[in-house]
Amino acid sequence: MDRRLIIEHIPRLRRYARALVGDRYVADDLVQDTLERAWNKFYLWRPGSDLRAWLFTIMHNVFVNQARRRRYEIEQAMEEVPAVSVRATQSEQLELQDVDRVLRSLSPEQREVVLLVAVEQLTYEEVSGALDIPIGTVMSRLSRARERMRQLLGAQGVMPLKVVK
Amino acid sequence: MKPLAEAELHTYIDGALSEGARAEIEAWLASHPEDAERLRAYAEQNALLRSLYNPVLDEPVPAALLAVRPHAGLRYAAAAAIFALGIGLGWIVRGMFNTPQMPPVSLARLAATAHVVYSPEVRHPVEVPAGEEEHLVNWLSKRLGTTLKAPKLAPLGYELVGGRLLSGPQGPVAQFMYQDTRGQRLTLYVSRQRGEPRDTAFRFSQEDRVSVFYWVDGNFGYALSGEIRKEQLLQVAEVVYKQLNP
After folding, report:
1. What is this model's ipTM?
2. By three-state DSSP, how is residue B176 classified?
């Protein structure tokens, strides 16, 4: 088996994990657990099929199990300093923080779908496969999550550039 | 014009549309400004989420993640066995810890276990009290085969209580104990790590009520444990790290 196959995907797994759980250390633990499980189950992966989607499936399973066991939602109780460093102007920075806060307010199920579609740019079919849910459920979660984010972002007046005097 | 399903609208911003479908949706949006506005907001969410999290792709991957190897999953069996059997039977599973390249997660578990065992002690929390700090540090340094330091945490409100020698899967382990004025205790667990010297980023683990920040620096693993809030513990862990790596 070729280690490079999996190692290539680590940066994207880290991006998704960070967005999913918010906290850097918790996210990297999630990646580590995912990689260990992937290695130990690598014989189950069919060469030629989409390795990335397979890894997301594993991460989803680890996340769901750990959320149950270890309360991964711990970050919601904490006001985190921005989890990632971004080069942005102050108003963009504020906007990004608002988006992150609103993202945290989604249920983990909605957050997974939004991130896989918006950040990881998986197709709806791939999301359906990775999370093992029907495509109709993908669409309803996506639709609800996006609308909720829009409402929260709009309602808080957090688009500083659009504030009218 | 037939009404568009919600799913089709989302398809418009998530790509992968045929020319015909795109034209159909655009015609719909031209006459339905509310839907158009909604999609504009969703597209903006996509862009914001990407600019928020894409920088993670450029971060260096922590060494611990690159070090993950097949069959490291045995650590779960080992950790579970230790919890089930208790430390007294630890030697039975000791062989499992000899798995090559065991990732440092069990470091957190071992440190948390030692914290839970010794920090509630009223009369004998440590073997050598802080009054004999020089002797304590020399003794533990000699046993671990390195030059140890007991970090000074008084500026953060934690005074050294003392320390003790413990037994770990890789041999001797040093435990330093600190305490604030309310009796809240923190322990620093220092143990030799198996395998090649390496450095890892700070990592966090919640072991029941005990929060642990841990990292590997060269041949040694460090774990700071306490039943305090994560961000408070991180503050202390950063000071510990800086003092050990001046």
Report:
1. 0.81
2. strand
Q: Check CB contact under 8 Å for B69 and A39.
A: yes
Enumerate residues 40 to 99 of chain A having a beta carbon within 8 A of any beta carbon in chain B: 40, 42, 70-71, 74, 78, 84-88, 92, 95-96, 99
Per CATH, is A86-165 categorized as 1.10.1510.10?
no
Containing domain of residue B52, as a range? Answer: 6-58
Contact between A75 and A111 under an 8 Å Cβ cutoff? The reply is: no
Q: Measured between alpha carbons, how far is B226 from B209 in angstroms, rounded to an integer?
A: 8
Architecture of domain A1-82: Orthogonal Bundle (1.10)
- The model's pTM is 0.53
Looking at the structure of chain B, the number of domains it has is 2
Q: What is the mean pLDDT of each run of 10 residues along chain B (246 residues)?
A: 78 82 89 92 93 92 81 48 47 41 65 88 86 92 92 93 89 93 91 81 84 88 92 90 85
- Domain boundaries of chain A, sorted by first residue: 1-82, 86-165
Q: Which residues have CB under 8 Å from B144's CB, separation 6+?
A: B172, B173, B174, B190, B191, B192, B220
